[in-house]
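Lab notebook, bench 4. Continuing the backlog of folding jobs that were queued last week. Each job is logged with the same field layout so the records can be merged later without manual cleanup. Today's entry covers Cellular inhibitor of PP2A, a 809-residue chain. Filled in by technician R.K.

JOB TYPE: sequence-to-structure
TARGET: Cellular inhibitor of PP2A
LENGTH: 809
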Amino acid sequence: MDLTTCMKSLLLAISQYKNVKSEVNASQVQRQLDVIYGMKAVMVFASNQSLPSECLNSLVELIADPNTTVSLTLKIIGLLTQLASDNESREALNTIYNLISTLAAVVHHNSATPSEQVVLQSMQLLQKITYNTRVFHGSANIDDLFAFLVKHIQAPEDEITMPCLGLMANLCRHNVAIQAHIKSLNYIKGFYRTLIRFLGHSSLTVVVFALSILASLTLNEEVGEKLFHAKNIHQTFQLIFNILINGDGTLTRKYTVDLLVDLLRNPKIADYLQRYEYFNSCLSQVLGLLHGKDSDSATKILELLLAFCSVTSLRRILCHAMFGASFQQSLVATKLKPQVKPSEPIISLLHWSRSQLFFKKCYLLVDSSLWTTLQPFLELLLPVLLEQLQIPEHPLEGGLVKKKYDRIAKTIDVLLDILCEQILTSLGYLHLLCWSSAIMMSRCSVLFKTGTDIILKTLQIMNRVNQLVPNMEAGFYKILQDQRLITPLSFALTSEHRDHVQLGLQILFEAAPLPEFPALKEQVKDVRLSEMMDVYEQKLSSLASKETRLQDLLEAKALALAQADRLIAQYRCQRAHAEAEARQLASLLMDAERKNEELDGVLKTQLMETECAKSDMEQLFQDNRKLQTVAEEHESLKVESVYRAQRLETVERQLKELQTEHSSLNKQTETLKKLRFLVCPISNARIIIINLSIHLNKLRLIYSLTGLQQKIKAQEEKAKKMEKEKNDMEETIDILRKELSKTELTRKELSIKVSSLEVQKIQLEGRLKEKEALLKVQEEELGKHSHMIAMIHSLSGGKVQTNTVNLNL
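JOB STATUS: finished
OUTPUT FIELD FOLLOWS
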């Protein structure tokens, strides 16, 4: 089975699966993909042929369909991952098939289950195709992709964290619109904190991803100034060079080089790197990475060296590191023992001479003032350049032809840059160089634009050195008289680049004085030839008339197409305007719902506060009742204390009277003692007994009076305490009355606010109803526009039905 039959079978299986999504049809599509895998013909999809392009378009449509089975989606994503390894195929997947938006839709559809394998492989493919690619922020599903990335970067770490960080680093690099969108997020500070936390991660790849995102977002802001401050920049350089030298693989090294190249564009950081004390040792270790066998790593290292060369101070340091004293010794060792693998970085550059970055690197190095040091290096460089100028005898395939001639053009650019008469003459390579260039020019006729550029630059080299090589001048002028030179010369003179026009004029100035240079017009001497020319002129005139008619038809079709394009553009503008209005209305609706939720929360809190105030008021009423009972008890105690005070006054008066009587009785007893011996003993004894009994009664009355005085004093102290408690209760009652009045005012204000919130809620409901009515009107207008588009497609000859152009907001 040939490849074309496999493609047709795959296209048929895809169409059957689109019509009926069953397991049998899905397995049939997978079987056809396995056949193509088995034939190792995956890269056939990268060609510009119609059948592979149609198959690839259908496969991308299957991925975009959320109803496609997971196994089939994974199989197609694996195929696209292999295609994305080629730069041209990756660019075609972005520009023609819009694969980024499609994969973003796949991630959005499966965002509820991020642990699924389809999400992981989609993220890895997105990271691969967005590397060094500028993504348009307005593309479909990009905002959802950003939300997914930020959410999972801030979530607990899992297997999808690293692809999310890598994809975010790709999207933020050199994309101001996406950077502004991320900076405008509400949770950007938390996102920064998460990225800074990742700088201490055990995986160097995660560290370089996080540092790349921080450099893209914060390099010229306050956070970036703190992160890349003079105090911290040396630690950052140490971290970057450590990752670059001891990285986990090619992927980590690529992102580390990109990060350092971006940092070197800042003049302050470039100055800090020049003053970094360990820069020379780090540079020697970086140059040692050129000895590896990985071409991708070597290419990124050369790109980093190019970035160093863009800074004048670093460029001189790099030149001395590469062309130092040890370079001469290594060069001698290489010549003596060519089988030994060289250890100098400049020798390793010759081994990587197939890389296009090598020629740019060589140009920057030889442009310095180290000619005495560079001369031994040129002895090794020129044979490599001559080898690159040779065209293989066997014809190359389509993609290899373009790469070969691009490499030849770069080689000639390097030759023109290093073409110094003194050096090339001393090396003795001029004759080999020029004859190789002449042979290459005679065979360069495959690619028009690239071949023309090669031919003109080769003539420029021969014109510059034709006086230094024997017999070169005759060969140079012979080539100028060749008829095949007219096409590239006319292309150069009509080019839009000033350098090409200047080069074409220079060659024309050299070739115009030659006798056999093609003239503008030749004289016709043969009559038969003139008759033949007349016949051909008639045929040409008829063809020209047909061409004019076809041109008129083409202009009419172009006019109709322009009108259709204009209508489509108007429709797209109206659609974009409607989508923008719909987004605005959706945002307004979300704001209104959010405000409504906030107001509901405020209302609930106010109601809770009202309930608390009511409970406080009831408590205050109970306290007031208790205070009133205490006040009544206080009044009764006050009356009792007045009564006790009156009784105390009467008892004190009686006490005074008894005390006077007691004193008189004492005097009587004294007199009786004196008269005791004068009165008879019995009568005296009776009188004394009577007096003593009276005295005892008086003493008993005195003791009872002293007890009453103590009770009266206790009652007075109790009355004072009650008076003090009464005063305290009155003050507490005044305070509680004030608080009660305040709570009453607060309750009134809350009731007013509740009424105003209810009015606002009613107004918002009215506005929402108006917005819903407006959305219905806009949906009707979009339906009308979809019918207009269907009519436009039908007028332009398309077969698109009305239901295929319906729009969903």
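OBSERVATION: The mean pLDDT is 78.
SIGNED: R.K.
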